[in-house]
């Protein structure tokens, strides 16, 4: 049985080494010529981009939805995508514009929980 596990691990590792360069190519997302790359951004960078109007919640959510759509057929790791994700992103953008961020903390909490599950 241990031999079977080792064999599966070797197959998975080999597949990962083959797919990693393919999956990582061409997935950079630059927003409106500012040179901001979501893929390489830290949470602080994203918050700063929101503050400087270089990034919207909708753009961020669209980026991750595209990543899920592109990668999940291969990885098969996403159980469910919130059908309200774009609506919540638009709501967060509206609240940010009006300087009344009521649901932003809830959106951040949902995002953090999803990232921890991932």
From TrEMBL:
KW Lipoprotein (keyword) present: no
Annotated keywords: Signal
Domain of life: Eukaryota
Gene3D superfamilies associated with the record: Amidase signature (AS) domain (3.90.1300.10)
Keyword Calcium: no
Signal peptide (from-to): 1-26
Protein name: Amidase
Organism this protein belongs to: Castanea mollissima
């Amino acid at each position: 049985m241990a031999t079977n596990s080792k064999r599966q691990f070797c197959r998975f590792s080999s597949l990962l080494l083959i797919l990693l360069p393919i999956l990582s190519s061409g997935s950079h997302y630059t927003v409106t010529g500012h040179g901001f790359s979501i893929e390489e951004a830290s949470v602080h960078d994203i918050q700063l981009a929101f503050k400087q109007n270089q990034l919207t919640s909708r753009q961020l959510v669209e980026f991750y939805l595209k990543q899920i759509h592109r990668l999940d057929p291969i990885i098969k790791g996403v159980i469910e995508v919130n059908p309200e994700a774009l609506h919540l992103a638009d709501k967060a953008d509206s609240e940010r514009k009006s300087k009344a961020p009521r649901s932003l903390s809830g959106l951040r909490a949902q995002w953090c929980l999803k990232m921890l599950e991932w």
